[in-house]
C-alpha cells in the first residue's frame, strides 16, 4: 500500500439518487462501497492497479458527516504544517509495508482524531 495524494470529492445528494448512479460510476471506473462505515454516506473508489487514486464521498443532504469531512479537508488546506504531519505519517506507515487497509486506518486513527478535533474548533472559531 502506497500513501499518495488522492483526489477526493464530497457532495450532498438524496441518497436514493446516489444509489441510482452506481452503474454510471462503475462505467467511470469506480467501485461502489456503500456506506463503508458511515451512515448516510455512499463511498466510491477508483484505483490504478492496487493504488487508490480517487475517492468520492456522497452524503445524505444535511448530513453532519459532510461538515466533518469538509472541516478536516479545509483545515489541512489552511494549515500546511498539519497537512505535512498527516502526509508524513501516511508515508511512514506505507514505508513500513503495511498492506492491510484496516491496520493502515488504525495506525492513522490517533492523528486523524487529533486533527479532526482541531479542524472542528477551527471551523467554529471562523463562524463566530
Automatic annotation (TrEMBL):
<keyword id="KW-0808">Transferase</keyword>
<keyword id="KW-0418">Kinase</keyword>
<dbReference type="InterPro" id="IPR043519">
    <property type="entry name" value="NT_sf"/>
</dbReference>
<dbReference type="Pfam" id="PF04229">
    <property type="entry name" value="GrpB"/>
</dbReference>
<dbReference type="InterPro" id="IPR007344">
    <property type="entry name" value="GrpB/CoaE"/>
</dbReference>
<protein>
    <submittedName>
        <fullName>Dephospho-CoA kinase/protein folding accessory domain-containing protein</fullName>
    </submittedName>
</protein>
<dbReference type="GO" id="GO:0016301">
    <property type="term" value="F:kinase activity"/>
</dbReference>
Amino acid at each position: 500500500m502506497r500513501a499518495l495524494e488522492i483526489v477526493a470529492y464530497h457532495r450532498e445528494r438524496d441518497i436514493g439518487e446516489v444509489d441510482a448512479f452506481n452503474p454510471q460510476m462503475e462505467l467511470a471506473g469506480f467501485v461502489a462501497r456503500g456506506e463503508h462505515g458511515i451512515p448516510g454516506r455512499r463511498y466510491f473508489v477508483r484505483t490504478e492497479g492496487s493504488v487508490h487514486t480517487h475517492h468520492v464521498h456522497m452524503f445524505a443532504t444535511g448530513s453532519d458527516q459532510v461538515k466533518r469531512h469538509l472541516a478536516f479537508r479545509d483545515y489541512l488546506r489552511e494549515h500546511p504544517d498539519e497537512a505535512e504531519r498527516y502526509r508524513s505519517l501516511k508515508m511512514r506507515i506505507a514505508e513500513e509495508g503495511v498492506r492491510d487497509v484496516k491496520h493502515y486506518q488504525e495506525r492513522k486513527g490517533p492523528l486523524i482524531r487529533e486533527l479532526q478535533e482541531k479542524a472542528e474548533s477551527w471551523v467554529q472559531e471562523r463562524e463566530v
